[in-house]
């Protein structure tokens, strides 16, 4: 398994952060002017951003929990069976449902600037099929956007924060089954548990998935049902200026609570003072 480089981590983290505001300039991140397509859910909210440039990589960013309805989705934590060609497993109903919500093509009719205009992807959302495509799901819309890009030789990186991370791994597994080896990597931030043991066992991208957790981010311990939901891929835990790899949830929880209890004393350590040396250059 390849290591995740610091510049890669920073890039995908910034893209996840930038996916929340309405204002978003994809060209600031090195993507082509025309290399940006938005996928909205039934409520008209931007659910996914697909971006590409001259490089052979397409980046798919899933927006995380933001609105009240998103938070309610987190509570729909009972597992549901999903069956696809070559796979049958149980996953979190709420996060799975986010990919199955309709993404009406009619939403794009009033925003032609959001439609891909390059010859390469002119087939993504043909206007003459608007009525026929009205009830295509969010995931199916994503597949429509990616198909010509994959045919052009590009590979896909999927990323997302919170519930967006859960959507990313669910979509990545389905894409890998349809387009083998075309998923380059999956990087999630603060992602909750998404699938049961059956999903973990059948997930195809363990060696290309990085799950980033930060300190005692409580969402990464959810849903609070021990033994029901299992994480996939390689876990990288950022804690006390170190990166811990694939430690158990129990170890992470105990160490986080211990650090929290010891925090007032830890600030007395000389290391804390030395690490603040750069402050004097700005004083």
From TrEMBL:
TM ranges are: none
Source organism, top-level taxon: Bacteria
Output the Pfam families linked to this UniProt entry.
Lipase_3
Record-level GO BP terms: lipid metabolic process
Q: Fungal lipase-type domain: which residues? A: 59-225
By what name is this protein known?
A: DUF2974 domain-containing protein
Q: Which organism is it from?
A: Corallincola holothuriorum
């Amino acid at each position: 398994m390849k290591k995740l480089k610091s510049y890669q981590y920073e890039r995908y983290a910034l893209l996840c952060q930038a996916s929340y505001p309405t204002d978003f300039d994809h060209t600031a991140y090195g993507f082509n002017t025309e290399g940006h397509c938005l996928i909205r859910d039934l409520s008209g909210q931007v659910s996914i951003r697909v971006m590409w440039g001259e490089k052979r990589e397409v980046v798919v960013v899933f927006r995380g929990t933001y609105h009240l309805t998103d938070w309610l989705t987190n509570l729909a934590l009972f597992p549901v069976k999903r069956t696809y060609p070559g796979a049958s497993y149980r996953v979190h109903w709420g996060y799975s449902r986010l990919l199955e919500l309709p993404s009406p093509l009619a939403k794009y009719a009033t925003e032609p600037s959001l439609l891909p205009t390059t010859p390469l992807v002119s087939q993504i959302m043909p206007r003459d099929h608007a009525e026929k495509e009205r009830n295509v799901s969010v995931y199916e819309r994503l597949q429509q956007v990616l198909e010509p890009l994959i045919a052009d030789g590009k590979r896909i990186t999927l990323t997302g924060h919170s519930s967006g991370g859960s959507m990313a791994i669910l979509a990545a597994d389905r894409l890998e089954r349809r387009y083998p080896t075309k998923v380059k990597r999956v990087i999630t931030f603060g992602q909750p548990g998404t699938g049961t043991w059956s999903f973990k066992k059948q997930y195809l991208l363990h060696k290309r998935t990085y799950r980033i957790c930060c300190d005692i981010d409580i969402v990464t311990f959810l849903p609070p049902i021990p033994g029901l939901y299992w994480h996939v891929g390689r876990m990288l835990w950022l804690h006390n200026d170190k990166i811990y790899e694939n430690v158990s949830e129990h170890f992470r929880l105990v160490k986080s609570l211990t650090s929290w209890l010891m925090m007032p004393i830890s600030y007395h350590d000389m290391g804390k003072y030395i690490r603040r040396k750069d402050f004097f250059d700005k004083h």
